[in-house]
Design brief:
The protein is α+β, with helices and mostly antiparallel strands. It is 33% helix and 33% strand.
Length: 85
């Protein structure tokens, strides 16, 4: 079966986010003064073949831990959707 993984990567809460601060500052300049605590992350989608949801989930978690994130400073979450062949 084919699976689509939608992966979100964010900085851990205790890690400073200079890119988020820059976006927040720019929004303030554009008169969006009600915006606070902007955090910037990454979003990825991938398709993979696996016989069962559990195996697909195991592989996605392994990919995230080994390559797609820096576990020292980033957290991740994902959604797994079954795709028709």
């Amino acid at each position: 079966m084919r699976w689509k993984a939608k992966i979100e990567v964010t900085l851990k809460k205790e890690v400073l986010d200079p890119q988020g601060a820059a976006v927040e500052g720019a929004l303030q300049v554009l008169n969006y003064r009600n915006v606070r605590q902007v955090r910037v992350g990454k979003y990825m989608e991938l398709l993979l073949e696996a016989p069962a949801r559990e195996e697909a989930a195991r592989q996605v978690e392994e990919m995230c831990r080994r390559l797609l994130t820096n576990p020292v400073i980033e957290d991740f979450s994902y959604t797994l959707l079954g795709e028709t062949p």
